[in-house]
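User: two proteins, same treatment. go.

Assistant:
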Amino acid sequence: MKNFIGWIIITFYMTMTFLLAFGHENPDQLEVRISHVLHEFWSVKKGSWDLYRETFREIGDPLINPLMKKLAEKNAVPEAGREEEWNQRRVVWALGEIKTEMAVLALISIVRDETLHVWARNEAARALGHTGSEHALDSLIQVLEDKEIDPIVTRGATYGLGFLKAVKAVPMLIESLDDNHTAVRMGIVYALGQIGTDEAVDGLIQSLDDTDGYVRRMSYSYLRTLKPDKNIEFLTLSLRDKDWGVREDAIEDLVKLEDATVDILIQIIEDKKNPARWQAVRILGKIQAEKASLEIVALLKDDDWMIRNEAAVALALINTKGIIAPLIGLLSGIDKKSCESAAWILGEIRSQDAVEPLLKLLEKDDYSVIAAMALAKIGSMEAEIPLIHKLVTVDVQNRRAVAWALSKLASEYSVRPLAQALKDADREVRFWAAEGLKKIGTPEALEALMEEKKSHGEKLSFEKSNR
């Protein structure tokens, strides 16, 4: 096959001579036109190739011989290899647009020519798939059967068979599902998905056992499309897949089922062995599934930190009155992780009912930080005095959180405590104190900032923040 290209050039030369002599009224004019068109085509970038599509189809076979001659040219300079590859791909593109039987023969010869770049051969195989030719179909099946051929070329053949929707190739495609190269197996799955017959579906089901997540991901996607009556069955299987991408696709498809979605997602989050739990929780929050709110509240005590985090965010998005009472119940502090998550959620949803329990939580040093932040988000002025008392606590983390909370509340009553906090040993406490005073913006607040600058020479901005 390596010398097949030489034979094909001679054949094309004889064919073109015949066409020039008998197929056109003015052969000399046509030859000039071909020379001009190819000269232009050879100088443009790939993005402009489409401009020549109609011209190539109009001229047809007489273009093939000069294109194949160009293909036979080899760059003498090693550094020009990349340019040579693109020139070969340029020829392949042009032949693929001509689409005649002579062009099909030329593309077949390119696929088989081991002296050419593999990506040019890959694209020739794909181009054959757009010709609709029986010769192309047989040639692509032969490529699939040839286990010695480069896998990049084989992959191109699988896509070509997919473009042809080649039912005839299904048995060979299924037989090749054990290929050692992931890219080839992905191409096979693509072809089976495009063909879509019952036999092709059987092949896709077989590929669900593939070792590669991308292959399984494609297979599940096609199966859910080709067999909508078994959509739930395939979704359930894919939601248990070990690959994150497979599960992510299944979750996205599950959302489209609307009414059935929530019930299935609840089953997933309650199954501790299901690897899709955290994704299911996230989707329940995204679709604001109130029906699942109590089940998600229960996840705040889960052993998995990812589940707890996703549950907290989901509940903040759902924001229904039904979750407030159980969340407040978690503020008892018996379980620290769920207590902190509940406080964060109550702050995010601005629950006024949570102010009193949060004030009690603020009194406990271990929970002062999260309680202070939640109270500030709610905007409760009842929290101001207890927060001020906490501003002189020994623990630096607590002082930072309290200074931040007071800066958010920005009450004039906090001016003096915040002015005192400008002298705190911790830089972050001083920063939030300054931010709070700027936000309050009264003469007394700004004067306190000015005095601090005079005393320590710190560079502070006195522009009033937007409240």
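Protein 2:
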Amino acid sequence: MNLKIKLIAASLSMVTIAATASVPADKTVLRDCQFLNKNAGSKVLDKEAFEQSGGYFHLWQNNNTSNQKFTLTYTGNHSKGKSWHISVQHSGQCLHTSSDTNGSRATQYSCPSWADWVLDGLTKNNGYYIIRSPFNSNYVLDVKHQSTKNGADVHVWTYHGGNSQQWRLIGCRDLDGHLVTPAV
């Protein structure tokens, strides 16, 4: 009898943990995440043409397809936020940029250990994040020319805080399938 009560209590506490709004800051994997750009309404980060390697990212209307979904793997803390490997669901390759130069296009590439992007939470802006470059945290993921059109290039640019540099994570699920929001 005492054992049943403990199991029920343990089950209830697991449900409570699963229902929380954020993920603990340990080795965490989130899947099915999409990056919604604040400047572009319902448009999301999209990997062009379903390529398995190489190619670029752009902004596109949300079609809820695997080239618009990402897996985030928590890798540690950073002075500006939490570090994550960000891989494209359809190819398993990571979001990548070749340098921290303004205009360097966002591409997909194999996932090296140093390719940790930093999600810098902007709590005053209703859950939007700045996605900081793995090379230099002053450079962030940005939509070129603050465009809102399908096909607009996504690149890194010096941080200015505009809406084209703010991204909301939507649809993230933990490994048990519960909807979650990454902790910042």
